[in-house]
Automatic annotation (TrEMBL):
It comes from the Bacteria. Residues 1-21 form the signal peptide. Keywords: Signal. It comes from Amycolatopsis nalaikhensis. Residues 26-48 have a biased composition (Low complexity). This is Lipoprotein. Residues 25-85 are annotated as: Disordered.
Amino acid sequence: MRYSAKVVGTGAFLLMATACAGQDMSTSQPAAGGGSPAPTGSVSTSPTESVLPTSPSANPPGKPRLTVPEGSTPVPPDKVDASALPNGYPHEVWTANGGTILNIRAQEGGCGHALGEAAEQTGDRVVVNLSETKAQTGQMCTMDIRYPVISVALAAPLDQRTVVLKTTPPK
């Protein structure tokens, strides 16, 4: 009976510690988000501290999410060149924020995290390099594959330009 109580108590403690780990209640924000290129209207609480406003549509470029942000518009398949991607790699692209944000379905696995950057922006195309962070040496990682949506900011709206998706080596 004492063993059961210890197991239950330890489990409850670990559950609470995991739920609270890394949370700073004074500046934490909800994980839900959309696709704005940069937060605007930050509120300054002190000369050196800035707290960003929370918004259900805020998702900074580069921060992976599981779902496509609300209000995103799919880019037509004929405007997405995914010929440089490996077989099986997703090639779904959406625009948001008047076309200045690309939301791209990427691929990551284990301890890696998907990254994307607009490497080239011309009058007729936007080249996006997709990559993944490297795991630390000696770190144990799961062997799963995830397909998060990452956001990439553009200098100008996409309009009729073609999105060219490429992969680059892990960083």
